[in-house]
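Researcher: Quick test of sequence recovery. Tokens follow.
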């Protein structure tokens, strides 16, 4: 068995007694969830993206989305009562999250920010989500993610 990379995300999972299975793979720049799902041999719908967005006031927020779906920024802004939201530039996302883009986990974010989750993720039996490093996903149950992060459920997938 390979050694678990100890990231801030892993520390948070362990501190909250979340059972998880670590999975490492060879990370590909711009490969996204298509590359990670293929490397792990799992459905891309089960691989959850952690995206850092900003509202019109540059306040950060985190949105969790299925790997095979996109976020409707217009619907998300409408849901949270903002004029607009948009993905952060990679360097800005890195500063907000404390992780490198491609290795962003919703667990152990550097800055406190609201976390939103596509509601259909909660219906899955298990998910694969970034463990805080490029090429490192953790497999866990959605109820555990909800218990630790208390995300606001939204329906903003396209």
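Model:
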């Amino acid at each position: 068995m390979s050694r678990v990379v100890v990231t801030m995300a892993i520390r948070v999972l362990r501190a909250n007694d979340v059972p998880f299975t670590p999975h490492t793979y060879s990370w590909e720049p711009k490969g996204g969830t298509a590359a990670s799902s293929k490397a792990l041999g799992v459905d891309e719908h089960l691989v959850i993206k952690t995206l850092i967005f900003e509202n019109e006031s540059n306040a950060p927020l985190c949105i969790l989305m299925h790997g095979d779906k996109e976020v409707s920024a217009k619907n998300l802004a409408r849901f949270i009562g903002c004029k607009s939201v948009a993905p952060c530039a990679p360097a800005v996302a890195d500063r907000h999250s404390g992780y490198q883009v491609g290795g962003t986990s919703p667990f152990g974010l550097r800055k406190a920010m609201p976390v939103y989750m596509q509601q259909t993720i909660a219906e899955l039996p298990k998910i694969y989500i970034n463990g805080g490093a490029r090429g490192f996903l953790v497999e866990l149950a959605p109820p555990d993610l909800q218990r630790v992060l208390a995300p606001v459920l939204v329906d903003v997938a396209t």
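The longest strand covers residues 47-55.
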